[in-house]
Amino acid sequence: MAPLGAACWYDWLAKTSEQCQDPIDDFELARLQASIRPTQSSSVSLGEQAFAVGERLHANHDPRAVDYWARSIAWMDDARRQNSDVPPSRSCRTSRVRQSAWIRILSCGKAYGRLDPTSHLLVNGISGTCRIPVAHQGFAWKSNDFDRLLVFEPPTGEMGNVRGRGIPLVVLTQSKSPGLMQNQRCDCSSSDGQHSASCDKFLLSQTPFAATALIHLPISLFEETIACDEVCSGNVDVATVTLVNPLTVNPMGGDVQIAQSPAMPLLYARQASQYNPIAAFIRGDNGVDRPELRFLEPYQTDKIPLILVHGLVSDPATFLEMADAVRADPLLRTRYQIWVFRYPTGDDFLKSAAALRQKLAEAFACQSAGAVECELPATDHPSQRAVIVGHSLGGLLSKLQVTNSGDRLWRAVSSKPLDQLQGTPQDIADLQKSFFFNASPHIGRVVYIATPHKGSPWASRGIGRLASLLARGKASDGRDYEEVVAANPGVFSDSFSGTVQSSVQLLRPSSSLLQALAATPSSPDVIVNSIIGEHCRLPRAGQSDVVVPVDSAYREEAETTTVVDATHTSILRSSTAQYTLLKILTEHLAAPGTNCEPDEHPRRQYLSLPAEVQPPNLIPAPIRLSI
């Protein structure tokens, strides 16, 4: 489901415009008459007429349209202040015209050279051009990151939608050249101690994020008796344009809510993505579909990284509903920052895990630099470390980030120690990275969702064998591995004595490597949670989520195990699974000095929740905003 472009409400416009031979002169005449003989409906009439003038100018590509949309906002605001007892039908009409004018300025202002989202809005008042500053409130983004403003109709049915003041937006950051993105270094330059500057290489070009626009344009801006510089300087009612982060700030105060739709940027990102997970599965890491770790917002030292790792033939968009649930939660969205890892899922998952390990090390190096330079307190408590969540194959990649390998995995594929193998230094180094590693000290919790720790029977059947034939890794990797095998006859086990195995082959229950990984415990410093799907029985495999048997997904070391009535793919959209993840993340915050107290759960308790369990209504019910 993609967000829809927001529309302006002007069903009365055609009739009004036909009556205007010279719309600007007619408006000024009406304004003069209203100033001499004001009536209760003067401001509403002027607001509607100003909007009609703006629309006619816009049809002719005239930049003065912005000035008359601004006048419409000013007089409609004046009408709202003066007429508290306006009939509901008239009040609704006033609000719609006002919001339509807002949408026009936000959508078209930059094209007319009037709106620079990084700094200002230019409006021609009665005494000249007024430069109204654009303020940015509550963002981790810098002012110069606000490149484009996109207005959408907030999608129905999404958690976190709130009806209120302002216009919810999707903001796009500036485009970055590939070379610049690859060569960015991490630093911490924030002077407020709240968050550090981001590792820019982990931020995509034109990253979308949520904002709410609040515009206040007093009618004094368009009155002859008051000079424009007085309006802009604050000597009278001040004109303001504020872009607010709705996830962290409520500038209205009290019970007044600002409009927000946290799902819109995520939906836009999925719609705009050119990534094809099926093509990536077949082509492998070909230099285009390479493994990538991405931040959804600049790194902030006061937020815990929540790392999402997708499964086979998938991409980070599969976590959209889960991410939306986290961002819709009033507490969690202020305490967690979301990172996503995308990788070609047909490749050897040890290789993908090694790529994730390297990129996380780089990201956590930025975290460490930020914590030191910004003088944040350091602690070894898991609640101050990252949470990694893996679905399906992504769960195995996640486990390889919280495990000390020793030589267990290597002994599952080779009868000779690595340092005794014949091969080029680069080939030996690549094997070292894949098979020998330590658990990341920066990850304090892992959540497995429908993860095949003991494999899936489908990987051994016809469909799995076909998928193995389709999956292709990097051609050079295959040649290098074959050369190592040829140089060391009789050393590798039968399954690994040919070409590089695909991820599908490694998911076969008979895989010696998968069995060794299943027998390898997670680091004792890491808390483990499992969410398992149970939907139907598989022949000779028992209860399953259609793809992964429950027995394969179960981990004895898990602190909690939640069983959900869901299939392998629908589990991420399950309200029970989402509620369980939110509960886990809330408990992860419980550390000395915090106000969140976790529920008591004995270690290794097995929890089974019925499918009809629904999460409590912690957020307002979704509301479709009519504009």
Topology of this protein?
Blueprint: E1 4-5, H1 13-18, H2 23-36, H3 42-59, H4 65-82, H5 88-108, E2 115-116, E3 120-125, E4 128-137, E5 148-153, E6 167-172, H6 178-182, E7 208-216, H7 228-233, E8 240-244, H8 263-272, H9 277-283, E9 292-295, E10 304-309, H10 320-328, H11 332-335, E11 336-342, H12 349-373, E12 386-391, H13 393-399, H14 408-411, H15 425-435, E13 443-449, H16 462-470, H17 475-487, H18 503-506, H19 512-518, E14 527-533, E15 536-538, E16 542-544, H20 550-553, E17 560-564, H21 575-588, E18 605-608
Parallel strand pairs: 4-8, 10-11, 10-12, 12-13, 13-14, 14-17, 17-18
Antiparallel strand pairs: 1-5, 2-3, 3-4, 5-6, 6-7, 7-8, 9-11, 15-16
Helix pairs in contact: 2-3, 3-4, 3-5, 4-5, 8-10, 10-21, 12-13
Order of strands side by side in the largest beta sheet? Answer: 1-5-6-7-8-4-3-2
End-to-end distance, in Å? 19 Å
Percent strand equals 15-25%
Return the average pLDDT rounded to an integer.
77
According to DSSP, the number of beta strands is 18
The number of helical elements comes to 21
Q: Write down the Rg.
A: 29 Å
Anisotropy-based shape: elongated
Largest beta sheet, briefly?
A: 8 strands, mixed
Helix-residue proportion:
25-40%
| Class from secondary-structure proportions | alpha/beta
Unreliable runs, pLDDT <50, ≥5 residues? 14-21, 178-198, 370-381, 464-470, 591-627
